[in-house]
Design a protein that fits this description.
Length: 295
């Protein structure tokens, strides 16, 4: 049974407030569902892998993302924290010209050098933090972060500019990382079956800019390393959306950030949960009554 009008009722009563810029504010039952879901994902990370929750900042250094060529691979998704120049004369000229246009658009100012990027993926913070370290044993980490990915269009809960991503990361030898990912795949499959949530697993690739010119895309096509958990409401109104992903990075981040296990680069893998998309899946399947939610 699907509940296509459930989100409309939440929007009408304000439990979900929608911003056309691709953002949502939550309160009431919507916030309760958000918190319940994150407790489930954090519980898996903590109980099964001993991962303690961590809080990460909003920005990542552009220099760190340069190590993985992020700006060249995903320029269409990047959100930059633009700030004014520190030069008082520049600021006065900017103010004299009028900082805002009649339609509300901010006039582009003389900008200070941009050295940071708003977080595009929560797990990147861990690779930066452990750069240059030797990882003696499999290490498990988790955080929930607000992530920013600029897109051409937005939809409430399923396609957002800023969204919440809970990620669980494993750093260690290849066999430990692969066992971690397979364990999470089994966990997700069993959970979906238990609560009767209609999902399927599918091979995927990252949304590279001009992908056929990117060697990482070619490598993913030849030897797939990304799987998505797709939810399909079955109402024909929306295409299936990815509510989780399982990513095996091999030694890509280990080499880029100088992390080692013994005399080898560390392997890494992550499992990501888009919390707002999980909200959409629960809402579409079980409706907006908290008593009907299986979480």
């Amino acid at each position: 049974m699907t509940h296509p009008a459930a989100l409309a009722r939440w929007l009408e009563r304000g439990d979900v407030q929608w911003y056309e810029s691709g953002q949502v504010a939550l309160r009431g039952d919507a916030l309760e569902l958000y918190q319940r879901l994150d407790r489930v994902f954090l519980g898996w990370a903590a109980r099964d892998h001993g991962a303690g929750d961590e809080l990460v900042p909003a920005f990542l250094p552009a220099a760190a993302l340069g190590k993985i060529d992020y700006l060249r691979s995903f320029p269409h998704l990047v959100t930059l924290p633009l700030t004014l120049s520190h030069d008082p004369d520049e600021i006065r000229r900017y103010l004299a010209a009028g900082p805002q246009l009649p339609d509300g658009e901010i006039r582009l100012p003389p900008a200070a050098p941009i050295r940071d990027v708003l977080t595009p993926a929560a797990c990147y913070h861990f690779y930066c933090r452990h750069a240059g370290q030797t990882i003696a044993a499999p290490t498990y980490l988790t955080t929930r972060a607000t992530c920013y990915r600029r897109e051409a269009r937005y939809e409430p809960l399923t396609r957002l500019w800023s969204f919440s991503l809970r990620e669980v990361v494993c750093l260690g030898p290849s066999e430990a990382v692969q066992a971690f990912l397979e364990g999470f795949a089994a966990k997700l499959e069993a959970f979906a079956r238990q609560i009767e949530l209609p999902v399927r697993f599918a091979t995927a690739t990252d949304p590279f800019f001009d992908p056929k010119q990117n060697p990482r895309w070619i490598a993913q096509v030849v030897a797939p390393v990304k799987r998505e958990v797709l939810f399909d409401a079955g109402d024909g109104d929306r295409a299936p959306c990815a509510i989780a992903s399982l990513n095996f990075h091999r030694t890509y981040f280990g080499e880029a950030f100088g992390m080692r296990h013994g005399d080898q680069p560390v392997s890494s893998g992550c499992v990501g949960f888009g919390i707002e998309r999980w909200m959409h899946a629960i809402l579409a399947t079980f409706g907006e009554d908290p008593r009907a939610w299986p979480v």
